[in-house]
Design goal:
This protein is α/β, with parallel strands linked by helices and 362 residues long. 27% of the residues lie in helices and 27% in strands. The chain contains 10 helices and 20 strands. Strands 3, 7, 8, 11, 12, 19 and 20 form a 7-stranded mixed sheet that branches. A 6-stranded parallel sheet has the order 15-14-13-16-17-18, sandwiched between helices. It is globular. The N and C termini lie close together (12 Å). Bound molecules: zinc ion (2 copies). One zinc ion binds next to helix 3.
């Protein structure tokens, strides 16, 4: 089968690799339909790493995908050949102390599609499939993968295969909003209007948040945030976004979603929050350390909540899309085929041509 693999920094090649096969009774062989290019994929493409998770080349990347079931193992009950599925890229052990307390997203034995393992931490991210050179950390930017049954969420064709591939990033927005304890009276700021910031916006609007202020350094994303329903959106390079938002919300916002992974946005979030507010850290910083204005966060008694992907929100994401409550297909601005994978990654890495979300169709 064909696979798009990273071969170096900003290098990607289409190669032939062995097609995976069903080994366990609970395995499902999936024919990949659509793969989303994620900001985290682009971190690996551009930098070869995210923190302690370092790519070993050649590397089969990709974790946001939808697929059609090709074949199932003997014990599989919930899906059958021909079914369309949204793929949950995380495989947790269901046995460790984290799983037992309902924290599958920080499972000590977690495996995650297309994510290099972390040699310097003793938990998390031992990737799952064995499709390429016997490696266990492969992704889904290829024709077929094998996943356990529990990761194959049948959509019953209620949503498109493209929407199914968007469920993974959208689920992060659903989870983030849930963790922030947002209510109908919540006033929120979302700093960073990429696909994850926009997913938080859509999820927050479903919960009925009364005011949502958004920012981005790219003008086209500011416009997109407005079109998607932000109460106000601005570019920090053009306006003083803290002053502009505080003019509208003199008491500060209840929740700030930091979705850019920048020191500047963390500082803005702290300034925007009211005392007792929640700072949600969602973005992935490219640096090893960030800092907080301790005088501000201490005196305001800010609660800082980190978001590690999502936990048990993928099915909710499918449901919200299927019921028409979440319209996220407008996020897709560009479509490519497998051979054009490098073009898709370059486009996203360089924020070219008004890109919000690029999808690769197989
Ligand atoms: Zn992703
Ligand atoms: Zn576990």
């Amino acid at each position: 089968m064909k696979a798009a693999v990273l071969t170096g920094l900003r290098k990607m090649e289409i190669v032939d690799v062995p097609k995976p096969s069903i080994k366990e009774g609970g395995d499902v062989l999936l024919k990949i339909a659509v793969v989303g290019v994620c900001g985290s994929d682009v971190h690996y493409y551009r930098n070869g790493r995210i923190g302690s998770q370092i790519v070993q080349y050649p590397y089969l990347i990709g974790h946001e995908c939808s697929a059609t079931v090709e074949a199932v193992g003997k014990k599989v009950k919930t899906v059958k050949p021909g079914d369309e599925v949204a793929v949950e890229p995380a495989v947790s052990c269901h046995k460790c102390p984290q799983c037992k307390m309902g924290r599958e997203n920080t499972c000590y034995e977690l495996k995650f599609l297309g994510t290099p393992g972390s040699p310097t931490t003793d938990f998390g991210d031992r990737p799952p499939t064995t499709t390429f050179e016997g490696r266990e950390d492969n992704g889904c930017l290829c024709e077929y993968i094998v996943m356990p049954e529990e990761c194959c969420l049948a959509t019953k064709s209620r949503i498109s295969l493209e929407e199914a591939a968007l469920c993974e990033p959208f689920a992060i927005g659903v989870y983030t909003v849930r963790q922030s304890r947002l209510t109908k009276s919540t006033k929120a700021a979302i700093l960073g209007s990429g696909p994850i910031g926009l997913s938080c916006l859509v999820a927050a609007k479903i919960q009925g948040s009364v005011a949502i202020y958004m920012t981005d350094k790219l003008d086209y994303r500011v416009d997109f945030a407005k079109k998607t329903g932000a109460t106000w959106a601005g570019n920090p390079d053009r306006v003083d976004i803290v002053a502009s938002i505080l003019k509208r919300e003199p008491l500060g916002v209840d929740v700030a979603y930091e979705c850019a992974g920048q020191q500047q946005t963390i500082d803005q979030a702290v300034e925007l929050l009211r005392p007792g507010g929640f700072l949600m850290l969602v973005g992935i910083p490219e640096v090893e350390r960030v800092n907080f204005a301790i005088d501000h966060i201490r005196r305001k008694e800010i609660t800082i909540i980190n978001v590690r992907r999502q936990n048990r929100c993928a099915e909710d994401a499918i449901e919200l899309i299927a019921k028409g409550k979440a319209k996220i297909d407008s996020f897709v601005t560009h479509r490519f085929n497998l051979e054009q994978s490098k073009d898709a990654f370059d486009l996203v890495a360089d924020y070219r041509d008004g890109v919000i979300k690029a999808m690769i169709e197989l």
